[in-house]
Amino acid sequence: QVQLVESGGGLAQPGGSLRLSCAASGFTFSNYPMSWARQAPGKGLEWVSGIYSDGRDTDYADSVKGRFTISRDNAKNTLYLQMNSLKPEDTALYSCARGAGWDGMDYWGKGTQVTVSS
Length: 118
Fold this sequence. Notes:
By secondary structure, this protein is mostly beta strands. The protein has strands at 3-7, 10-12, 18-25, 34-39, 45-51, 58-60, 68-73, 78-83, 92-98, 107-108, 112-116. The strands form two sheets. Strands 2, 4, 5, 6, 9, 10 and 11 form a seven-stranded mixed sheet that branches. Strands 1-3-8-7 form a four-stranded antiparallel sheet, with no helix packed on it. A hairpin with a 6-residue loop joins β5 (45-51) and β6 (58-60). It is globular and about 40 Å long.
């Protein structure tokens, strides 16, 4: 069965960095685009970033463009999100999803919590 397991969240100071990972299993990872989304306390789900199956094309929400970098290692079946210059408003539960676009994201991980605070 499809499984997506996120890790790497935690507490960071404003201006700091974190690297999230999403370990995928149960499907041919290299065949699918992948996405990251987040949900802040009391707010709706926000798409953060996406990457095509071969890793050559990426896209970002305006709120994270220039600060976050999505990547993938198809040999390791793992998706990454490098988050730099973190802001308190980046505090959220971050989840990875198989697919791209709201209609295309069909499987989700349980998420990893990121808290940005001094």
